[in-house]
Specification:
Elements lengths: L4 E2 H6 L5 H7 E5 L2 E4 L6 H11 L5 E3 H7 L11 E4 L9 E4 L8 E4 L2 E4 L1 H11 L2 H15 L3 H10 L6 H7 L10 H12 L6 E8 L3 E10 L4 E3 L26 H7 L3 E3 L3 H10 L20
Parallel strand pairs: 5-6, 11-12
Antiparallel strand pairs: 1-3, 2-3, 4-5, 7-8, 9-10, 10-11
Helix pairs in contact: 4-5, 5-6, 5-7, 5-8, 6-9
Protein name: AbiEi antitoxin C-terminal domain-containing protein
């Protein structure tokens, strides 16, 4: 249930008097109030910014991705609105951009850009690394269609940030389970590594899946694994004899039996893993894997 109220509407409807409004509520934006003692959550922050626009704006960017279900969005975000306003309130970015009727929808009674338009905006307006992190999270939540995003690039030719968007779109991977995995994947790609796969199944025999690895190179049987405590962004490896959840089933021993090599987050660990025991037919030098001067 929504906690926010529009003060002028509440007074006009007779739901609250001016005295009750001053005594029982605090202002979030001009004419937008929340009850005293209540801490607005992410939904309130987004809703409040949209109400402040007089319901004329359309939620976009990171806030839109949150409404679509994307993870890793905090309550302290700056809300982006596609809204013609030269003096937006604190905590709001107003973008006077062209928006076609098929590029926005309604979620939780709030006007919001579609998943494809949200991806289009994220890839253009954010710094490169953060853009890919947000695009991965949106892809994981919505499975937005790349072709629909590309159609928007043709529709809005010459828009700012188009080159970055076109670079990042082929790199988006909805299998990334955390921002850290996205950051590490992009670091590998920028260093010239082959593109890794996320959520890689490890098979015992032909059909039995014994584990899904966070990220790896299936053809080379090399995997990156983070600690189970890595939800906060820490990375590392699962020790032999431990499962990802900290149990004592010989998880990594099983993976080794399936011919997988385990590496830490550092490039030098991966280059060493390949160089010490390169897979048949793989020339580590040709793959430009010896970039040990770069590390996480």
């Amino acid at each position: 249930m929504r906690k926010l109220i529009v003060g002028s509407q509440a007074r006009q409807a007779g739901a609250l008097t001016e005295y009750q409004l001053r005594r029982g509520y605090v202002r979030l934006h001009r004419d937008i109030y929340v009850p005293k003692g209540y801490s607005p959550d992410l939904m309130d922050v987004i809703d409040g910014a949209w109400l402040r626009s007089g319901r004329k704006g359309v939620v976009a960017g990171i806030a839109a991705s949150a409404l679509h279900g994307a993870a890793w969005v905090g309550d302290d975000i700056t809300v982006e609105l596609i809204w013609n306003s030269t003096r937006p309130p604190d905590g709001v970015i107003a973008r006077a951009e062209r928006l076609e009727p098929d590029e926005f929808t309604t979620l939780d009674c709030i006007a919001v850009t579609t998943a494809a338009r949200t991806a289009y905006d994220l890839g253009r307006h954010l710094p490169r690394l953060e853009a890919l992190v947000r695009l991965d999270a949106l892809k994981r939540a919505t499975a937005f269609v790349d072709a629909e995003v590309l159609e928007l690039t043709r529709r809005h030719k010459g828009a700012r940030g188009m080159r970055q968007l076109l670079e990042l779109l082929p790199l988006v991977d909805g299998g990334a389970a955390s921002p850290q995995e996205t950051r590490l994947r992009l670091l590998y790609l920028d260093a010239g590594f082959p593109r890794p796969t996320t959520q890689v199944p490890v098979f015992e025999g032909r059909w039995k899946v014994v584990r899904r690895l966070d990220m790896g190179w299936e053809d080379l049987k090399v995997a990156y694994v983070r600690h189970s405590s890595g939800a906060d962004g820490t990375v590392g490896s699962v020790r032999p004899g431990e499962t990802a959840g900290g149990g004592r089933r010989p998880c990594w021993a099983t993976q080794r039996a399936c011919s997988w090599r385990q590496v830490h987050s550092r490039f030098v660990s991966i280059t060493t893993a390949w160089a010490a025991d390169p897979p048949a037919g793989v020339n580590c030098g040709d793959l430009e894997l010896f970039r040990s001067s770069t590390s996480m």
